Amino acid sequence: MATRGSRSEKVKRIFQQFDLNGDGGLNREEMAALVVAVNPRVKFSDEQISAILDEVFRTYGDFIDSGKGLTYDGLLRTYDDGAGDVDRDFEALGLELKPEDDKINNIVNNEVESSTAFEEASAPVKSSEPPRAVTWAVSPNHGIVFDDTWKLVDDLEILIKRLKTKQMKELKTLKGENSDGYWDPGWSREFGPPDMNKQVVWEETKPDYAIFVKELGVLRSRADGARSREEAFDGHMAIGRVLYDQQLFKESLVCFKRACELQPTDVRPHFRAGNCYYVVGRHSEAKDEFILALDAAEAGGNQCAYLLPQIHVNLGISLEAEGMVVSACEHYREAAILCPTHFRALKLLGSALFGVGEYKAALKALEEAIYLKNDYADAHCDLASALHAMGNDDDAVKEFQKAIDLEPGHVDGLYNLGGLYMDMGRYQRASEVYTRVLGLRPDHWRAQLNKAVSLLGAGETDEAKKSLKEALKMTSRVELHDALSHLKQLQKKKLKGNGNGEDSFVIIEPLKFKTLGEKTTSRQELAAGLDIRSFQRITRLFRCDVELLKKEMNETDTPLSYSGYGAPQKSIRKAALESILRRLLSFLKAEAFVGAVKAINLKILSILDESESGRVDLGMFFAVLAPICGGTPDKRKRVAFESLLWQPMNVERTDAKIKKADALCYIKLLRSIYIPSHPISEMLETHGETDASLISLSEFLAMFDDQDWGFGVMSTLLKLETGDRNRHGNHACSVCRYPIIGLRFKEMKSRFSLCSQCYSEGKVSPNFKQEEYNFKEYTNGSEAVKDKCRWFSSSSHSSKSSQGTSNS
Fold first, then answer.
1. Structural contact between residues 320 and 575, judged by C-beta atoms closer than 8 angstroms
2. What pLDDT is stored for residue 412 in this prediction?
């Protein structure tokens, strides 16, 4: 592989050869001569040449010297962007470097691999950057080695041309057909999925397509009948690349798979098969092929070292498509290490890190990507989102604006900017931005819904109602119905004369909230329980049976690792831990799984990996998860105990006991993760975290259930889990006005009711302000009815007793 220095020297020699007038620029005539010279087997029409030059001079406008043409830096940038293969073009032109100019350029690259591939699929936006310049660089060589392979390519091009002619009337292209009916081949790319703006739709059900496939089979048979295995491989690779260029992905995949069979240790066929799998939506198979490509590269030394960065990038993208964002980060990072100027790998790394809540690291990667490529609109957009997540809203607005200035139609930048304005309370500005989004994407229902919400915030209720109705025409998602319900509540409040429809309340200090009966949950404890319940809903861990943790412990062979101090641990990398989570949460779709991993990373892994080593203690992780997974309380506690028993220092024991110090450390972690607002009791220190004594399961359970310094919130969590769908008739919260679902808290003197959320936050309507509040908790409507019957019975008994006394 050529070094950067020898590579740039080759580009300079190519530039000098075609800069005929020596003015330091390639004008249209000189550039046309270059395109034709490096593609000797392609017969370009004048229209095609003109279209290619228009694309080059438009795409690289920053490198065009007025009156001279494309500068040397511009030509170098086209090669950096994957527009062509410097080595191939240099050889095709018959140029040579002096030995001292290219001391280590001893590897000949047989094919071009573009530096871009695949649509980007990473948080917070899912935009794709069209590859620069690869649309004009038709590369007919295809890395062909044997002369007979050219005959296969020529015959295949005839078959494809015949198929195009027959399907011309049926072909439906988005942007691939000229006004005169000529099918423009200019979109054809040497490598990577096609530009989706110019995607061809082949009519595979037509008889002419079946005939094409049959004739294609004959060509494949000819390739198989070649004189040597190497020539057969060369034939299948060339056929596959031509088919891929024409977006005949299924047929090209057959060729690349056959090439894999012929030379299983060659990187290239696995790499290209992976691209085929990805573009047809088979992401798991794509991932497997890229892994095989990496294995082949590792076995083959430096022969295909130039491909390694892109293999890692494409593997990362495939993993993201399956929701494995943490694992994708490792491959993006590796690509950036192998190729420090790979700005797209850095951008993808930053976006993926953002997706799992690693905001500082995301910021660093995105800033580096922008340093390498300042006009990278997608990177500016994601950088803005990272800044917003870190609370730097002013700079976030500037970055969003840069992305929009670079690409005025950047839908994701506009949409995210609208969300930022809403978070800042600038509702009118947000609604204007969402209007711009809808101008670009009229079917963007989320923008339509957010526009309605921002109009609500701006006090324009009537306009918000219209916007909601438009959103309902696009989709019937539950978010729309929730928004409509809230709008109706605001309208009711407005009719009652409550100003602009905002719910008013006062916050009461905790000491004034008294509880009646032992079953009534305290305000602070309920707030902790609600927070854990919200975490359960985001991660869906309550749908994961705790027994699955035991199964993972039995089946996972985690080696011991030493941190340099203390006892050994069964630590595991976060990427490997993500794979375990994927098995535990296999019922989640990719997008939901990414959200779950992000929540787990922010709440749990950030504490377990406080040193930011990238590794966590797997046994302690299982123990921390156990209390919030599905299953009975006894099972959850038992699995937590068994997870601690699984620790290296306890696993060899036969008496099923764990160190008391480990149990104390575990409970401390539980409280710091799930009840961070509650101070950790000093009893942890008085009991001694270095206590070497051993405890049994029963002793562990007593420690776990201790209300003062254990995990006493467990009972509240169970109450919320079992009752969060219970309704209480027509009772509505006196503060938020929503029907009460779950726990209901009734103030016994003023006889108003609060929902769990308002009660935990201490909210009370000003109409019921008093010195002290006494609340009683009801888990369902029947409890309230029984309570009322007891009250009537008590009142009746009291009345009869009073009457009897007077008669006497």
1. no
2. 94
| H-state helical runs in 168-266 | 207-224, 229-245, 249-262
Distance CA(371)–CA(365), nearest Å, equals 10
Sign of the CA dihedral running 433, 438, 440, 443: positive
Sign of the CA dihedral running 205, 207, 211, 214? positive
Q: Which residues contact 105 (CB under 8 A, 6 or more apart)?
A: 1, 2, 3, 6, 87, 97
Token pair of 600 as six digits: 């787990």
Q: What's the CATH number for 357-495?
A: 1.25.40.10
DSSP3 helix / strand / coil % (the chain, rounded to 5): 60, 5, 35
Encoding tokens for residue 626? 């156990």
**CA 210 from centre of chain:** 39
Q: What is the DSSP string of 727-774?
A: EEEEEE-TTT-PEEES-EEEETTT--EEEHHHHHHTEE-GGG--S-EE
Q: How far apart are the first and last CA of the chain?
A: 114
Q: Residue 616: what are its φ and ψ, rounded to 5°?
A: -135, 155
Dihedral class, residue 236 (left if φ above 0, else alpha if ψ from -120 to 50, else beta): alpha
Query: What average pLDDT does this structure show over 339-352?
Result: 94
193-207, 382-396, 630-644, 706-720: segment of lowest average pLDDT: 193-207
Amino acid identity, residue 419? G
Name the CATH architecture for the domain at 1-109: Orthogonal Bundle (1.10)
Residues 489-525 pLDDT 10s? 655 555 554 444 445 789 999 999 999 888 899 999 9
pLDDT of residue 465: 86
Q: Which helix (H) or strand (E) holds 148?
A: helix 147-167
User: Tens digits of per-residue pLDDT, 522-539?
Assistant: 999 999 999 999 999 999
pLDDT for residue 684 is more than 90: no
Given a contact cutoff of 8 angstroms between Cβ atoms, the answer to whether 575 and 326 are in contact is: yes
Spatial distance between the Cα atoms of 759 and 736, rounded to a whole number of angstroms: 11
Give the angle subtended at the CA of 315 by the CAs of 310 and 320, to the nearest 5°.
Answer: 125
The torsion region of residue 48 among left (phi > 0), alpha (psi -120 to 50) and beta comes to: alpha
Using CA of residue 760, residue 763, residue 765, residue 771, what is the dihedral sign?
positive
Q: Architecture of domain 136-307 in CATH?
A: Alpha Horseshoe (1.25)
Residue 291 in this model has a pLDDT that exceeds 70: yes
- H helix count then E strand count, the chain: 36, 16
Asked if the domains at 136-307 and 357-495 fall in one CATH topology, the answer is yes
Interval 17-69: pLDDT, tens = 888 888 888 988 888 888 888 877 666 777 778 878 877 887 787 788 877 88
The whole-angstrom distance between residue 537's C-alpha and the CA centroid of its chain comes to 18
Query: What is the dihedral angle through the alpha carbons of 622, 626, 627, 628, rounded to the nearest 10 degrees?
Result: 100
**223 Cβ neighbours under 8 A, 6+ residues apart:** 149, 152, 232, 235, 236, 239
Where do the structural domains in the chain lie, given as residue ranges?
1-109, 136-307, 357-495, 540-720
Alpha-carbon 733 to chain mean position? 37
* Residue written as token pair 């209007």: 435
**How far is residue 675's CA from residue 375's CA, in Å, rounded to a whole number?**
45
Cα separation of 613 and 621, whole Å?
Answer: 15
